[in-house]
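Q: Got a minute? One more chain.
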Amino acid sequence: MSRADRITGQAAGARESAGQIPGQDLKQSAEEQSPGTGAATIALPVLGMSCAACQRHVEQALNDSPGVVSARVDLMRHRARVEFDPRITQPTALVQAIRDSGYDSALPRMADSVPAPMKMDSMALSPGLKAAVTILAGALAMLFSMPLGVASDSQMGGFDHGLMQLLPWMYALPVSALRWTILIVTAVLAIWAGRGIYLSAWKALLHGETNMNTLVSLGTGVAFFYSAYVTVWPNANGNVYFDSVLLILGFLLLGKWLEGRARHRALDAVDALARLQPATARVRRSADSSGNPVEEILPLEQVKVGDLVVVLPGERFPVDAVIESGRTSVDESMLTGEALPLARGVGERVLAGSVNYDGAVACVAEQVGVETVLAQIGRLVEQAQGSRAPMERLADRASAVFVPIVLGLAVLTLLGWLIFAHSLPLAIANTVAVLVIACPCAMGLAVPAALTVAIGRGAQFGVLIKGGEALERVSTLQTILMDKTGTLTIGRPVLAGIHSLSTLADKDLLRIAAAAEDHSAHPLAHAIVDQARALGLSWQPATEAQIISGRGLTAQIEGQRCLLGNLAYMQEEFIPMPATLPVEAAGVTRLWMALDGELVGYFDAKDALRLSAKSAVAWLRGRGLQVEMLTGDSASAAAPIAAAVGISQVAAGLMPADKLARIRELQQSGLRVAMVGDGINDAAAMAQADAGIAMGAGAALAQEAGDVLLLNSDPIGICTALGLSRATIAVMRQNLGWAAGYNVIGIPLAAGLLYPAFHILLTPWMAAAAMAFSSVSVLLNSLRLRGWKQEIIN
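A: Always. Here it is, folded:
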C-alpha cells in the first residue's frame, strides 16, 4: 500500500469518532490486506536464486502475470510476497509463473501459526562439503599440473623448482597421463559440485535471461573446454586451467555456504520469535468419575478459544489468554522489550510466548494459533524484513544491466589480449577472471541484508519498524511531535474529583457518566468507568451514543440527553456555563456534563507521567531534534506535563485537523516530521507526518497505525528507532559502497589493465576467491547490527 493510500485511509478513519475508530488489526497490517479490493496476499518460496538479477527476473515474471496487483521478491529469504486478485488468478498459477521464469516454487503450508524457523536441513551442509572437496581437488590439480610446465600457475618459478626437488617422482609421470587424469577428475567433480550452477544458467538462457550463474558457467566452461582441447590435441601447446575450474567452483560454493550461515544469523530474530511458542498446551477440558478436572497435554493446533489452559511455573504460555485463577509474574521481554517481570492476576491478560515465572495459573484461551500477538508480531517482522528500501533502487537499476555489461567486458578482454599481446592462454585466463570476479550478489544483498538484521534487532527492543521505506524516513527526522495522553503520560488517568453543580449526588453523576462512557475507548472514559465499578455502581445501557471527535459524546440515558465533553463542546451545544469557571488545577483534565441542556457537574482526572519521558525528550533534543507537544487537552493540563519532560513548545486544545495543519506547516518549511501518538485519535496526524510512531503494547496492538510500533509504550523506543535507523542507513551505504567499489576495481584488475604498468595479473582462482569474499563481506558487515545497543539514557 502506498503512503498516499495510507494517509487517505487513516485520515478517513480519524474523522469517524474518537474511541470508536476500528483499530487496524496487526494481522491485517502484516498481510497488507487491501480492504474493498478483494485482493489476497500469499508468500511463496523461490528456489534457485543466486543474485539480484534472479530476484528481478522473478519479480518481473510475477508482476506480468494476470491478476497480480504487486509482487516483491526477498533475496534474503528466497521468498516472493504476491498480492493478487483471486477472481482472476490462483496461487497455483503464481507458482507456475515462477517456474516458467526458470526457478522453482511450491505452495506453502497454510497451517503454520507462526513463521517457521529457518532450519538447516540434511542437505544444508552439502555446499560446505562440496566446497571442501572441490577446493582440495583444485589444489591437487594445481600441484600435479606443475610437471606439465604449461599449467595455469607454472609461472610460480622458484616454487616449481623447489617442488621438483621435493617430489621428483611426480615429475617422472608421463605428461599425457597426468593431463588425462586431471581432465577426467575435473569433469566428474565439476558435474558433481557445479550441477546446480550449470542448470540455473541453462534455465536462464532458455528464458533469455542472465544471472551470476551465467558468468560462472561461462568462465568455468571456457577454461575447461580450452584445457580439454589442449589435452586431447597435445600439439596445441597451450596452458591447462583444470585447477582454476575446480577452485572457481570450490570458492563459489564456499561463499554460498558462508553466505547461507550468515543469512541464517541475520534472520535469527524471527526464528527466535517462532521458537517462543510451545508445541503443546496443558488443557483442562473434562472431569473424571469423581468430578475432578482432568488435564490433557494437547498439540497446540488442537487448542480452541475458550479452553482452560493450565501453565506451571517456568513454562511459556501457549496462547493469548485471561487468567481465571492463580497469580504469577511473567516475562514478556521477547515480545515488548520490557525486561522486568510483570505481575498478573485474575482477569488480567497474558500473551503467548511469555514466561510464567512463579505461580501456577489457569487461564481461558482468547486467541490461538495465527491470531496470537506473538504470531502477528512474527508476521509483521517477517513482512518488514522482506520490504524494499528506497536506497535499494540503485542496486535494482545496476543489477538489471550488470551481467550483460560484464559479458561485454569479458569479450573486450578476450579481444584485447589477442590483439595486443597475441597470447591465447593469457586471453583465456583474463577473460575467465573477469567473468568470475564480477559479483552482482554483493550489490543485491547490500541493502536487504542490513535491513533484515536491523528489523530483527529492533524487534528485540520492542520496536517494530514496518519496513525499509519507514526505516529510511525515520533516519532523516528533524522534528518530533508528541501527543500527551498515552504518549508522555501513562494514558490511564484516574478521577481526581467529582463536582456536582445540581441537586444530583456525586454517585448519581458518576453512574450516569459511566453509562455514557461504557463503550468508549477514550482514556477519560476508562477513568470514569473504573471509578464507578470500584464503587460498585450499576447502570442501564445508554442508547443513541455518538462520539464527537476531539470534543466529547452524547447519549440517551434514563430518558435524558446526556452530554459529556470539554468546554468547547459545551459552548458549541449552547449549554449555559457559570459566569466564573472553577479554577482548573495544574495537570488536571476537566470533563463537563450536561443533562437535557443544563450543566449538572464536572469531573477532574489526572494522568501520571511515564518514567522515561523526560530522558527520551532530553536524548532527542541533545541530538538536535526539535520536540513539540500537540494535545487536545487544555493548556492548564498540558503545561505541567510539558514542563516536567522539558518541552517548551506546546500547542493545547487542538482538534485532529489542527494537528494536521501544524504538521503541514512544519513540512512546508522543509522539516521532516514524526508524529508520536496512540494510533487512534492521532491516526490522521501520524499518516500525514513523514513517519508515524504509534504507542501500544499487548492487546493495544490492534489500534496501531504508525510506521513504527512501540510494543511497550515506552518513549525510549523513539530513541531506539531513531538510533537504530541511522546506524542501519550507515551500514547500507557502506555495503553499497563496498559492492560498487569492489566491482569497479576488481573487474579492471581481472581484465589485466594494471599489467602494463605494474605487471599484476589475477589468476582465475584468485578472482573466484575475491568474488566469494565480496558477498560474504556484505553479510558480515550487516551482521554487526546484531550487536547494536541503545545508548544509555539517564
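A: The radius of gyration is 33 Å.
Q: Perfect, thanks.
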